[in-house]
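Table S7 (text form). Paired inputs.
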Amino acid sequence: MPIPNGIQIPNALVEDVRQRRAVLFAGAGMSFPSLGILASHIRDAIGSEIQRDYAEYDFGLRTLEDVCDEYVALNDRITLVNRLAAAIPQGAIPTPSHVEAVKAFRFIITTNWDLLFEAAYRQIGQGYNVLSSNEDAPNFTYDQHNLLKIHGSVDRPLTLIATSEDYEGYAYTHGLLLDRVYELLNNNTALFVGYGLRDHHIRQLLTRIRLTRGVWARKAYAVGYFDRVRTRLLDRRNIEAIQVLGGTDEIGSGLEEILPELINRAGIH
């Protein structure tokens, strides 16, 4: 399916993908067309459980991270991560974007917990290596396809990153995995798809790259729905916005057509 009118894919990005000089960084917006759930849906499910015991609890005013913190305070972490894992459909069908991505990108970084990329690898018969915890980092190799699930994986609930403590301690608990992410982002063109670029540990890596490489830092690209202010901020951070037509939590935004069209233009089949 062609991309909607008004969405522009830079030729420089097409060439980097063609030459295998690009790394895909996938956020929740890429999984939404298949899963149909967002962080707010998971927040509501967990928050509803708290509300059963605390009728005045208003989870609608809280983030998923807030609700996870409070759930752990009332229960325990292992109950939380198993509850989170149960909220993510594990038999979902990968989107065309997932299938095209695993063909074109040897290295994919994602904050998503779901198993859509794994299903896409299996669909095309491509071998792959999953790194979803710090202990997995030594398994990274340039000789095969690598999927770096930096916030954990639903099939390994104990790896899930969900609470404030998880995020605040990430650099200490996942230092080896972050080193691999830094290496990939530093040496390749980063393409962010459906990702808000708000995680502190990722922003910190990107700032480190800009400061150390200066004018030699590679331009990155972000596919999403950004207003003019956010677009200017991204530009200051050397990230070119590729605008879609609506929020990445909306079917028909154009996001789901971007990767297939990009990879087609790059001549990868």
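Next pair, protein 2 of 2.
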Amino acid sequence: MPDPGNALDYHRYAYVRFNPLKYTDPSGHYSVEELMQHFGVDSFEALMALFGEGGPYAGNSGWYDILRAAEDGDCITAMLPDYQTSISGLFVRTGEGRIMIDMGYSHLVPEAEFARFGGHWAGGLSHGWPGEYGMYHLQGVNGERWATATSGGQSAIDNLSCNHVDCVAITLDAVGIIGAGVQVASPACMQFAPACAAGGALVSRGAAVASMSWTLYSKWKGTASWADLTVASVTITGGVATSDPRISLGLGIVQLAWDGIVSANDPWK
């Protein structure tokens, strides 16, 4: 329950407090916009800065992954670096959109305090613990299970989720690669080679237009960086402009690697 003091939050069918035009919650997970509201920042870059060098959550990027995967009612467990001592609670939100952890008996703890328990512990090695970082376990109300540990300032996630990578971009990349691949392999179609080449080109260029549109939309929404937009512009423009399908195929693979590996780790966000 977001706010026990608000009567609307007891209404089981009061979706976003009867205000669906202002608030949306398509996945149930905390959105980037909801996290921005919680942290009191007005851009995705400012949100990421909190988890970057010099930020209050520096070295604990695993907690950001947990927040993006969580929703109200999920059970979160934080473990010390000895992996034996732990605390647990439920994600809840206040009427102002602040994310809290319900430790039971109406005892609400700010998520920042809870995050420190499983986060970086400078004295870990002196205690003989295996490293300086603890671990978080998230049990979703819908049955999903996440385990995220911070290690050397980087997060290690045992579930690959669309909360962590841009599944739309990766799907469009894959479709474009398939189209270019059909073009390259069109001679194998024998008498139907021209049709295969034309069909592959249509699929490849259609995916390129959709991919560029999605990247522009993501940049406008704040979930893509200038680096994402630059790489997409180069690979997509190059792939459309060339008459050699092998070049299109190579550029598509580069774009897929960027979206699935480089951009997923948010180095410029």
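Residues 49 and 55 are 6 Å apart (CA to CA).
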